[in-house]
């Protein structure tokens, strides 16, 4: 089977080999307080810095999930006012976390399937954190990175927090123009689920320091605690070492291939998928604004039958695509275009969609 | 190498095979919202219920770590008063979490290397949660399960929360006499780290319900949210499916062998280790009270040389033991006696310790 699902997703082709090597070397029996683990964390750090072109002041923390980072970022970085761009289920969940934590959470909202135009947005003065979902996994809407940078220019005060869960590593964000970003590994990195990665700059750490002792900032998972451990390439509690090991090696594989190559391939495959959808009589792109169509999660309306029939027919051919999210479950299919999905697999999928 | 370290630890012998099967079946690409995942969670549930003899009213939740459960249990189950039995680094961390969360955290403390006698304890009226570390990984002190049951008889009011991180699955707790327990999988279950397991009874859920809406109970990770998802064998966020898969299969392997057999073997191996330490001129058991000597984490004083020399010499023979914890780093060694450590490995270790 080839998994075109938007996470958990097709494993990156090198995962099985790395896992076998790790078992042979007994990596998963080594103490997370050992030099061997510190070396692994440092190696992950070097690889991720190179992949994202991170400025020197960024730190890299590991959590159990990206969901956890919604909560921890709000606990460590905000006392009162947050602002959320909501256009789908995952951007709404960041907002939910802010409400649960009792924050004064303001929102700009557009309908499912639409994106934001940075120049039209107004963010209230006094906003501590501006939460943007760079790629909405539920609707297949992305925010072009240039708009992210425009947001920062227009609103330099709030910390700019970017959920790039299903956009990484494709999205070529200039990290000097945001303050933090996060993702989980079971999407664009093609890894088993169970690890969140949090990229945090000095400006975040300074803000976090002002809140320490004044509110609950997350205990063992506060930015202060994570940073304290990070300085020795350690973690506050026993982490998902297997996930960190695989991430490190897959990122190194991606670097060997070249992140520019991966981005160009992603764009070419996305172009192929959207062109097919536009020309098809049976399918159509869900996202009408071309600039907001995600290159990494392609959502298609199924025009003349229940989506479940398409999903079943494809599965019989060994191709697994995702169903629509929530209320769109039987009206749409979602196709992940992650780095693990090579060109030939897209060719096969487009061909099968064309003869359904 | 054989890892006698108290977590991460020697992998259970069947882990590599299960991992290969899961890769072949592409388990880690399947959606965590699929029926296949629900079936896996249900299978984990059945297996863990059988292993621990859980009463029907218990639910089983998954988290990123046992550390997270310290925090989540306090958020969901307490508004004000907690009481902690502290006799080592890990019991102290549960207390730390309570203080960070602003609870009125009371404590009974005994020196490192000592345990508690249930009949001597006094727990203040009004205590909401009584936190007990059944097996202190740092010092090798355990609380016999009969004392746990005595505690419940003497103090029926507070919720009795049992950290059995390095005691499970050996500790034969009567779960009708406690209210919740938790562990991580990289110790007694011999799995890669990155998964916490939380066993929660109806009494906890009732208490949690009284706090919902009155305080922050953990958002996506509150008992209410976890229970809501658990009822369909789902999780609030994408879980460590690989960890859940391996746990399920290793627990089934343990059930096939028989938990009674595993407990008897554990006791026999522990007896062998402690007898050796008592008779040795170079080593001695750290825990003086025999009833408080952990069968699963055996801590030895090294009498006539730095512990690092012993550790290095053993490593040269392919045997990895843990160092002492914290201030005892160079005075002690710690030997995990988990189910993955078969009798023949203990024979080899005892022999090598004897001729050092």
For the largest beta sheet of chain A, what order do the strands appear in spatially?
A: 2-10-9-8-5-3-4
- Oligomeric state of this protein: homodimer
Task: Look at the structure and name the CATH superfamily of the largest domain in chain A.
Answer: Type I PLP-dependent aspartate aminotransferase-like (Major domain)
Q: CA-to-CA gap between the ends of chain A? A: 18 Å
Count of individual domains of chain A: 2
At the first level of CATH, what is the class of the largest domain in chain A? Alpha Beta
| H/E topology pattern of chain A | EHHEHEHEEEEHEEEHHHHEEHEEH
**Percentage of residues in helical conformation of chain A:** 25-40%
- Report the count of strand segments of chain A: 14
Please give the CATH architecture of the largest domain in chain A: 3-Layer(aba) Sandwich
CATH topology of the largest domain in chain A: Aspartate Aminotransferase, domain 2
Short summary of the structure?
The structure is a homodimer of 356-residue chains. By secondary structure, the first copy, chain A, is an alpha/beta fold. Chain A is built from eleven helices and 14 strands.
Write the layout of secondary structure elements.
The structure is a homodimer of 356-residue chains.
Chain A: E1 2-4, H1 15-24, H2 35-52, E2 59-63, H3 66-77, E3 81-86, H4 89-100, E4 104-109, E5 129-133, E6 135-136, E7 141-142, H5 145-154, E8 159-163, E9 180-184, E10 196-200, H6 202-211, H7 223-230, H8 241-257, H9 259-279, E11 283-285, E12 297-302, H10 307-316, E13 319-323, E14 332-336, H11 343-355
Parallel strand pairs in A: 1-13, 3-4, 3-5, 5-8, 8-9
Antiparallel strand pairs in A: 2-10, 6-7, 9-10, 11-12, 12-14, 13-14
Helix pairs in contact in A: 1-8, 2-8, 3-4, 9-11
Pfam family, one (chains A, B): Aminotran_5
Family (chains A, B): Belongs to the class-V pyridoxal-phosphate-dependent aminotransferase family. SerC subfamily.
Organism (chains A, B): Rufibacter radiotolerans
